[in-house]
C-alpha cells in the first residue's frame, strides 16, 4: 500500500494596497482562487508607527501595502473573512504588538475563540536595523516589546507564532548563506534568552516558546546552495534548542519556516525570465521533505516594474498549485537523503555558520553586534562584493549582463498597463476617514488608554494588556507609537557605509580609475578638494541597500559622501544639501512615493537658491513616471536595469559638469 501523500504547504501571496476595503476584496478573491492562507502587506506609515496625516507619511499611504490606522480599518480589512478559520501572516515588526492587538479584538468581535487563532507576526526587529529599515525604537525597548508579545501569546494565543526570525531581508541586503544562517540564529538566541530571563515564562513552558518561533527565509536562484542552506538551518536549530535551552521534545525543536522567494533577484530587463527564476527558487524550499517550507509566497514576474496586478499574483499562485497538485513531489520521502554532495555542502555551511554564531556571541550577542555596527558593515561589504562580481561579469544574470539581446516582449508591450497603480487621491481619502474616526470615538477613554500604556512602558508590566485597551478605545497607530516613543525614545541605526571596505579596486585602466580621474578633474575645475554627493532617502522607504552601494562606490571614486541614512523629510534633505554645499543630490526611493516627494525636493532647492544643484533619482520607477520626473527638472533617473554602479557614478560626474557649464570629459570605453 502506498504511503500517504505529504500535506501541501500553506500557499500565500503577499498582498495589500490602497485601503482596507480594496485589500479585503483582493483577499476574498485570492481565497476563492485556492489560496490557503493570507499574507498581509501593510503600508510604510503603518509599519513605522505614523498616522497617514504625518509629514513623513506623505506619498506613502497605501503604496506598498494596506493602511491600518485603527480598529475600524482592521474590521474592514477582514470583513466576511472568519479569522478563526484563517492562517494569517502579517509582515509587521516595530508595531507588531499593536497590529496583533487589533487583529485579536476583531476576532473577538467576530465571536471567535482567540485561543484558536493561528498565524504569524513577523516581529524580528534586528533585521530592521540591518536591512529593511522599519524600526522605531532602540534595540532594548524593541526586544522588550517582542518578549512581552511572546509571553502573552504563549499564555493566551497558543497557536499564534508571535515572531518569525527573518533571514529573508538579510539576503536582500547582501548576506551570504553563512551570514544568513548565523545572523538569523543569533537573533533567535537573543530573543529566546530575553524571554527566558524576563521571568514571564516558567522554565517548563520554554518548550512552548521554542515551538512557536518560526523563521521567514529567502530562497535565491542558486538552487543547490539554497536547498542545502535550509537543511543546515534545520540541523543548527535542532542543536541550539537542545543544547542551549534543554528542549527534549523533537516536535518542539522542529525548524518551522515560511518563505518568500527572492524579489531582489527579479530583473526589470527581460522580466519574463523572472518566471523561471521564481520556479527554481520555489523548488529549493519544497523538494527536500526534511527541510520543506511550511508556507510559501511567491512574488510576481513584474515586481521589479511596479505593483503587480491581481492576474500577476494569480500566476504566482498557480505555479505553487501545479507543483503541489500535478507533480508527484508530495508522494516521496526526502529525495536527497544519502547524497554525498548534499551532505558535504550542508556540513560546510553548518561549520562556517556555527563559527560566525560563536563570534557574534563573543561580541556580546546580536543586539550588541547591531549597536556596534558590526553586522551592518559586514552586510554592506558582502553586498558590495556581489555587485562587483555582477559588474565584472563574473556573476551572470541573463538579460542583464549576459544574453541581453531580446525580442519585443508582449508582456511589456504596454508598460503602463503591465503594473497596477495606486490612485493619488487615495491618500486624502484615508486621511479624511482617520480624522472622522477620531472625531467620533470616546476621546476620554482613548486618552486614558494612552496614559495607561505610557505608565506600563515606564515600568516593567507586560505591554500587551494596555495595548489591547488602546485598540478597543479607538487609539490610532500613530498615537500608540508616539506614546511609546515618549518613553523609549527613537533610534537611528548605523549605516555601515563608512566602515565598508573597498569592493572594486581602482586599478590602472579600470572603469573606476577612469571615473576617479573624471571626479578629480571636475573637482579641480570647480576649485574644490573633492566633489560632494548627498545621498538621501526621503519618506519612509527603509530599503537602503541601493543607496548604501551608491554611497560606498562614490566614496571609492573620490567623492565626499553625505549619507544620513533613512527616513528623511524633503526639508531635511534640502537643508543638508545647502549646509554641506554639495555638488549633486541623489535620491533613492523604492516605495512608489517618488511622484510626490521628488518634485517637493526640487521646489525646496529652488526656494533655497540652490536650484542649480543637479538631482538624480534611483528606484523602482515606471517609464511614464521617469519621463515626468525628467520633465520636472531631475537630471537623471536610474532604475534596476542600470546595474553598473561605477557607470552611474560616472553619469553623476557628467551631470555635475553639465550643471556647472563645464566641457564634457570623454572616458575610454
Description:
The strands form 3 sheets. This protein has a 5-stranded parallel β-sheet. It contains 25 helices and 15 strands. α23 links the parallel β13 (584-589) and β14 (615-619). The protein is α/β, with parallel strands linked by helices. α4 (96-109) packs across α18 (464-472), α10 packs parallel to α11 (273-284) and α17 packs parallel to α19.
Tally of alpha and pi helices: 25
Q: Considering DSSP H and I runs of 4 or more, what fraction of the residues is helical?
A: 40-55%
Structural class: alpha/beta
Uncertain spans? none
Give the integer mean of the pLDDT values: 91
Fraction of residues in β-strands: 5-15%
The total strand number stands at: 15
Strand order in space, largest sheet: 1-10-9-8-7
Taken from the alpha-carbon principal axes, the silhouette is globular
Major sheet size, sense and barrel closure: 5 strands, parallel
C-alpha Rg, in Å? Answer: 25 Å
Q: What distance separates the N and C termini?
A: 68 Å
Amino acid at each position: 500500500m502506498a504511503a500517504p501523500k505529504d500535506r501541501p504547504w500553506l500557499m500565500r501571496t503577499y498582498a495589500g494596497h490602497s485601503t482596507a476595503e480594496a485589500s479585503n476584496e483582493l483577499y476574498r478573491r485570492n481565497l476563492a482562487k485556492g489560496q490557503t492562507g493570507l499574507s498581509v502587506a501593510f503600508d510604510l506609515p503603518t509599519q513605522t508607527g505614523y498616522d497617514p496625516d504625518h509629514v513623513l507619511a506623505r506619498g506613502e499611504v497605501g503604496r506598498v501595502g494596506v493602511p491600518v490606522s485603527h480598529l475600524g480599518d482592521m474590521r474592514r480589512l477582514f470583513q466576511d473573512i472568519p479569522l478563526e478559520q484563517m492562517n494569517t501572516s502579517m509582515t509587521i515588526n516595530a508595531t507588531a504588538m499593536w497590529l496583533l492587538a487589533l487583529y485579536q479584538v476583531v476576532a473577538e468581535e467576530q465571536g471567535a475563540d482567540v485561543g484558536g487563532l493561528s498565524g504569524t507576526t513577523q516581529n524580528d526587529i534586528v533585521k530592521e536595523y540591518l536591512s529593511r529599515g522599519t524600526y522605531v525604537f532602540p534595540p532594548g525597548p524593541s526586544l522588550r516589546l517582542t518578549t512581552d508579545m511572546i509571553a502573552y501569546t504563549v499564555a493566551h494565543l497558543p497557536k499564534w507564532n508571535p515572531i518569525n526570525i527573518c533571514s529573508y531581508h538579510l539576503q536582500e541586503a547582501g548576506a551570504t548563506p553563512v551570514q544568513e544562517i548565523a545572523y538569523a540564529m543569533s537573533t533567535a538566541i537573543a530573543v529566546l534568552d530575553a524571554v527566558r530571563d524576563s521571568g514571564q515564562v516558567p522554565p517548563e513552558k520554554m518548550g512552548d516558546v521554542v515551538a512557536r518561533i518560526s523563521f521567514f527565509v529567502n530562497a535565491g536562484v542558486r538552487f543547490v546552495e539554497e536547498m542545502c542552506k535550509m537543511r543546515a538551518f534545520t540541523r543548527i536549530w535542532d542543536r541550539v534548542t537542545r543544547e542551549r535551552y534543554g528542549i527534549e521534545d523533537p516536535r518542539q525543536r522542529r525548524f518551522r519556516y515560511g518563505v518568500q522567494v527572492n524579489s531582489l533577484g527579479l530583473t526589470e530587463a527581460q522580466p519574463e525570465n523572472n518566471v523561471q527564476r521564481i520556479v527554481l527558487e520555489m523548488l529549493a524550499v519544497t523538494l527536500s521533505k526534511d527541510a520543506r517550507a511550511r508556507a510559501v509566497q511567491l512574488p510576481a514576474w513584474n515586481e521589479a516594474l511596479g505593483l503587480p496586478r491581481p492576474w500577476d499574483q494569480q500566476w504566482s499562485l498557480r505555479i505553487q498549485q501545479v507543483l503541489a497538485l500535478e507533480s508527484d513531489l508530495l508522494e516521496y520521502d526526502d529525495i536527497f537523503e544519502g547524497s554525498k554532495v548534499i551532505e558535504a555542502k550542508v556540513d560546510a555551511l553548518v561549520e562556517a555558520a556555527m563559527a560566525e554564531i560563536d563570534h557574534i556571541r563573543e561580541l556580546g550577542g546580536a543586539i550588541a553586534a547591531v549597536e556596534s555596527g558590526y553586522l551592518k558593515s559586514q552586510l554592506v561589504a558582502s553586498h558590495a562584493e556581489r555587485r562587483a562580481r555582477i559588474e565584472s561579469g563574473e556573476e551572470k544574470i541573463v538579460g542583464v549582463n549576459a544574453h541581453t539581446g531580446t525580442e519585443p516582449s508582449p508582456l511589456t508591450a504596454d508598460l503602463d498597463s503591465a503594473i497596477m497603480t495606486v490612485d493619488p487621491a487615495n491618500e486624502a481619502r484615508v486621511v479624511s476617514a482617520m480624522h472622522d474616526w477620531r472625531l467620533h470615538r470616546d476621546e476620554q477613554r482613548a486618552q486614558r488608554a494612552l496614559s495607561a500604556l505610557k505608565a506600563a512602558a515606564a515600568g516593567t508590566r507586560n505591554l500587551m494588556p494596555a495595548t489591547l485597551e488602546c485598540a478597543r478605545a479607538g487609539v490610532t497607530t500613530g498615537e500608540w507609537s508616539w506614546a511609546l516613543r515618549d518613553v523609549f525614545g527613537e533610534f537611528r541605526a548605523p549605516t555601515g557605509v563608512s566602515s565598508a571596505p573597498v569592493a572594486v579596486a581602482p586599478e590602472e585602466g579600470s572603469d573606476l580609475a577612469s571615473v576617479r580621474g573624471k571626479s578629480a578633474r571636475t573637482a579641480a575645475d570647480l576649485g574644490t578638494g573633492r566633489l560632494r554627493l548627498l545621498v538621501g532617502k526621503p519618506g519612509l522607504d527603509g530599503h537602503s541597500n541601493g543607496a548604501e552601494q551608491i554611497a560606498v562606490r562614490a566614496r571609492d571614486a573620490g567623492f565626499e559622501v553625505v549619507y544620513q541614512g533613512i527616513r528623511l523629510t524633503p526639508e531635511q534633505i534640502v537643508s543638508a544639501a545647502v549646509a554641506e554645499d554639495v555638488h549633486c543630490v541623489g535620491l533613492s526611493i523604492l516605495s512608489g512615493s517618488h511622484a510626490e516627494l521628488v518634485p517637493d525636493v526640487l521646489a525646496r532647492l529652488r526656494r533655497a537658491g540652490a536650484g542649480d544643484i543637479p538631482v538624480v533619482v534611483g528606484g523602482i520607477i515606471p517609464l511614464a513616471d521617469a519621463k515626468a520626473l525628467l520633465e520636472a527638472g531631475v537630471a537623471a533617473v536610474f532604475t534596476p536595469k542600470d546595474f553598473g554602479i561605477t557607470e552611474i557614478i560616472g553619469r553623476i560626474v557628467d551631470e555635475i559638469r553639465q550643471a556647472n557649464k563645464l566641457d564634457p570629459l570623454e572616458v575610454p570605453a
